[in-house]
Amino acid sequence: MRTFSFFIHTTFSAVPALMLEAATDEATVRRLAEIALAESPSRLLVEVREEDRLLFSIDRNGVAWGSREGRQLN
User: Fold this and answer.
1) How far is Cα 10 from Cα 2, in angstroms, rounded to an integer?
2) Which residue from 1, 39, 47, 69 puts its CA 20 to 30 A from 55's CA?
3) Among the residues of the chain, which ranges form H helices?
4) Is the pTM higher than 0.90?
């Protein structure tokens, strides 16, 4: 099991909230990030990191992008 950090950006604060999730793979963590984003209309963006490495971000419009480290999104 791997631990991922979700940094959740909202309309209420300039500082993102931190949420930790455990998952076995990046496909599962992507679904968890989508669920976290949909939990509140005030949530705008979720950054997903493993350790200090940005894996991807996803916004309310369903737009996802990866890090500059060349990782591919499925």
Assistant:
1) 25
2) 39
3) 26-38
4) no
